[in-house]
Design a protein that fits this description.
The chain has 603 residues and is of the alpha/beta class. Helix content is 26%, strand content 20%. A hairpin with a 2-residue loop joins β15 and β16. The relative contact order is 0.10.
């Protein structure tokens, strides 16, 4: 594989002669946003008026052209498949621009399970040949070496990628001397330093003395240093495992779809000092381009579907997400390219939480998906056609179909209503979401919509209401063979999760947590896990990564707890099996193979 490489066409056109040994060209982390700053093709500051009306579509097109030009150049030189080792949440725009192999740099990306969901969703929707993982563990695992699980996390990462569908892993560390000094007790921190400033060059006349001093302790960082040797041992052991146990055929079943909306150019997290598309000179004039409620919503959903247990106390777990509801794909609506057939054939539920720019085409796709039996969860702003990030100031005119969602879910928006403060359950008996009357969630202070119900009364169920007038906040709407969980607020779900009311719990679960947990359970596939009540995931399930490979006939488990055994109940094809995983254990077992017609007929 060529990585960050350059060569004349005379040389590059010979690579294909290597046959199956040659994987292609990886441009690494070459591309980033920053589209409207002076260092890019738009070599000027923006005026306040331009910033106010800046278009997400323009930003996406500028970015994709940069990527496409580079991909086309490499293809013209016969470099073969083009790969991206990007650690960004907009790798879908790189794939849409022509990248054929997403190979996410997982540790700086964040949640490795979420990164797998992104790459796997792109693999399915773009019919890619393969997807993989680039593990820069030495640089970005972030744990100090004094944490007893520091090096174990490399092993955990490789098994996690194996069981979530990656067919290629690139390990950045272990083949040479150590490089990183990002944690306070890194062996590199024992080296003498001429300066602590990254941008300050060491004068040539100072280097001989510096190197002479460093040579005395090269044993700490060299090829045969304890850490480098341990890296190679972990990689070698995993390689031996894969030779004896090749990765299961195909991809794991993922019947939950997490929608990454059209024109979502965010980092996937509410980085409040950041800017959408890294367009800081828009954000300085336009607060809508500062990450906010849309990005907070995506993070809420990620924390429900792929929760990160406290594995490394007292240090934070940034990287390892469990799958108490099974694997889920991130379904990118990049370029508005998702079809209803793709959704119908793959996902039992589809959940919107982050940014989305809707369109007439997308509305038709979502309607067809629901009519065919899909379960869709979304809020009013997800049906706005706005392209300028007005995530809480969009108008009726911005709504697709003028706010008439009768065909989708039997609701018609009549206008923006008054604000409500507390959400609660509609009855004194807990409903399916676990909400009960007088258990108040908020203060939310978001406007509701005034609604007209266009279907028969028995098509609706109020799942959450405001505590004063019982106006609907979340409505289950039956439509065709499917249903829509409609969040009736004029703001994104990320602004709805406060939990400071009477009876609030220490775990701080908010309204969206209750909703997403319930919807996720509706998306179970042919195999799933629960606690010993046989109904819901329990605390142990939130420490377990689980996957079922229908093409390979395998079920995989990984215990993220290095210190304690964890248990679950496996439900598969009418059977139940009690599973106990020892600390840190990876387990694989046989399961029925599903053939294509069975997958479709049972969905």
């Amino acid at each position: 594989m060529a990585f960050y490489a350059d060569a004349t066409e005379e040389i590059s056109k010979q690579f294909k002669e290597l046959g199956k040994s040659y994987l292609g060209y990886d441009f690494g982390e070459r591309f980033s946003m920053g589209l409207y700053s002076k260092s890019t093709s738009v070599d000027r500051d923006m005026t306040p008026e331009e910033a106010k009306n800046a278009s997400l579509e323009d930003a996406a097109n500028i970015f994709m052209k940069k990527v496409k030009d580079w991909v086309d150049f490499r293809h013209s030189g016969d470099w073969g498949l083009v790969m991206a080792t990007s650690a960004n949440f907009y790798i879908d725009y790189e794939v849409a621009a022509g990248v054929e192999v997403p190979c996410t740099e997982d540790f700086p990306y964040g949640n490795l399970t979420s990164a797998s969901a992104m790459d796997r969703g792109l693999f399915r929707s773009f019919n890619l040949p393969i997807w993989g993982s680039h593990l820069a563990h030495e640089w970005y695992s972030y744990l100090p070496h004094k944490n007893p699980h520091k090096m174990e996390t490399l092993k955990t990462a490789m098994y996690l990628k194996y069981m979530t569908g990656a067919k290629m892993i690139i390990n950045e560390s272990g083949n040479w001397a150590l490089q990183s000094s990002l944690c306070e007790d890194s062996p590199m921190q024992t080296m003498p330093r001429a300066t602590d400033k990254l941008n300050e060059k060491v004068p040539n006349e100072n280097k001989p003395a510096l190197l002479k001093e460093a040579e005395k302790i090269f044993v700490n960082i060299g090829y045969r240093s304890p850490v480098a040797t341990e890296y190679r041992k972990i990689i070698s052991d995993f390689y031996d495992y894969t030779k004896a146990n090749p990765a299961p055929a195909g991809q794991p079943e993922a019947t939950i779809g997490i929608a990454k909306g059209n024109l979502d150019l965010s980092s996937g997290a509410p980085s409040y000092n950041g800017a959408i598309a890294a367009a800081y000179n828009i954000a300085q004039y336009n607060p809508n381009w500062v990450p906010g409620a849309p990005e907070a919503g995506f993070q809420i959903l990620e924390n429900v579907i792929f929760p990160r247990p406290k594995m490394f106390l007292p240090h934070k777990n940034l990287h390892f997400g469990a799958t108490p509801y099974g694997q889920a794909d991130i379904v990118s609506f990049v370029n508005d390219n998702v079809t209803s057939d793709f959704l119908i054939n793959n996902y039992r539920v589809l959940i919107f939480s982050g940014w989305n720019t809707c369109s007439d085409k997308q509305y038709k796709v979502l309607t067809e998906y629901v009519k065919a039996g899909g379960k869709l969860c979304l809020a009013i702003p997800h049906l706005s056609k706005d392209k300028t990030r007005r995530h809480d100031t969009f108008t009726m005119e911005d709504l697709v179909n003028g706010g008439d969602f009768s065909e989708l879910c039997g609701l018609k928006i009549k206008g923006k209503g008054s604000r409500f403060y507390w959400a609660t359950g509609p009855t004194r008996k807990p409903n399916d979401m676990g909400l009960v009357l007088a258990r108040r969630l908020g203060i939310i202070a978001a406007p509701l919509a005034d609604l007209e119900f266009t279907n028969p009364q028995d098509c609706y169920e109020f799942m959450a209401v405001d505590d004063e007038d019982m106006r609907p906040v979340i409505i289950r709407c039956k439509s065709g063979k499917g249903e829509v969980y409609f969040i009736n607020t004029w703001c994104y779900p990320g602004a709805l999760n406060l939990n400071n009311g009477a009876g609030s719990f220490a775990d701080d679960r908010g309204l969206m947590d209750y909703l997403y947990e319930y919807v996720a359970m509706q998306g179970r596939g042919h195999a799933w896990i629960t606690g010993d009540d046989f109904e819901k995931p329990d605390e142990d399930c939130k420490w377990i990564v689980f996957s079922y490979f229908p093409d390979g006939g395998k079920i995989c488990f990984l215990n993220l707890d290095y210190d304690n055994p964890r248990k679950c109940v496996l439900h598969y094809f009418g059977d139940k099996k009690f599973i106990t995983l020892q600390p840190g254990e990876f387990m694989q077992m046989d399961a029925p193979v599903l053939y294509p017609f069975e997958k479709y007929n049972q969905r």
